[in-house]
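Format notes (please read before filing issues)

Several people have asked whether sequences and structure tokens are stored in separate files. They are not. Every record keeps both together, in the order shown below: the sequence lines, then the token lines. Line labels are part of the format and must not be stripped during preprocessing.
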Amino acid sequence: MRVALHTKVRADRIAEYEAAHREVPEELTAAIRAAGVTEWTIWRSGTELFHLLEVEDYPAMIAALEKLPVNIAWQARMAELLDVVHDYSADGADASLPVVWQL
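Then the structure lines:
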């Protein structure tokens, strides 16, 4: 399944956000892959961030990651950088953007 998400980085933390994503811990990327994600891309327009995930089962992925110490640490780091923080573990599949049109 494809899942689209929207977040917003703080304007004064863009460089730090991008630097963090150049150094995502290997333990976290391995856990994300093990949770069924085959692709995750993030685009930025100004402070707006758009994520597109290819994942077997989004709610199962959230459940698999939510208690992992490496993910908890990463989410805490992102909370410092993001302007609008969504609790994807609580929102589950409802956190994704609705499809408006598809070719």
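For reference, the curators noted about this record: The two ends are 16 Å apart (CA to CA). The longest strand covers residues 37-45.
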